[in-house]
Amino acid sequence: MEAKHTADFLPGTLEMLILKTLSRGTNHGYGIAQHIQQVSGDALKIGEGSLYPALQRLLVNGWVAAEWGVSENNRRARFYQITPAGRKRLAEEVRNFDFVVDAIGRVMGAA
Question: pTM for the whole thing?
Fold first, then answer.
């Protein structure tokens, strides 16, 4: 039987994943979490206790905007959209993430 693994998030990574997801288009919180989980092959699961505080931080920083609407199952939901400042922040986060992943790769590949 194969063990299922889930990954813990490095600081700032969750916000980067949310911004990346929203760069594809407007979405509600549950949809954001589902997209990340699906694309990661169930390796990354985001609970409400992490997702909504991260979305609030993104709102406060002006990296996302939100408005109320109706979801596909006819429920009231808050829909989030990345802002131009959020796109800039996403680019910065991706550069930083790539730098760290590259550095970790060098350490792990060292003899």
Answer: 0.86
Model confidence over 26-52: pLDDT tens digits? 999 999 999 999 999 999 999 989 999
The range of the structural domain enclosing residue 81 comes to 13-109
**Domain CATH number, residue 60:** 1.10.10.10
Handedness of CA 52, 53, 54, 55 (dihedral sign): positive
Low-confidence stretches of the chain (pLDDT < 50) are 1-3
80 close to 27: Cβ distance less than 8 angstroms: yes
